[in-house]
Amino acid sequence: MEIKEYLSDLGIEFEEFQHPAVYTAETAKKYLANIRGLHSKNLFLREKKKKGFFYLLIVEDIKKVDLKELGNLLGHKVDFCNEAELKNILGLTPGSVSPSGLLHDKEHKVKVLIDEDVWNADFTGFHPDINTETLEINREGFRKYIKSLKNEYEVIKVPE
Question: What is the pTM of this model?
Answer without folding.
Answer: 0.91
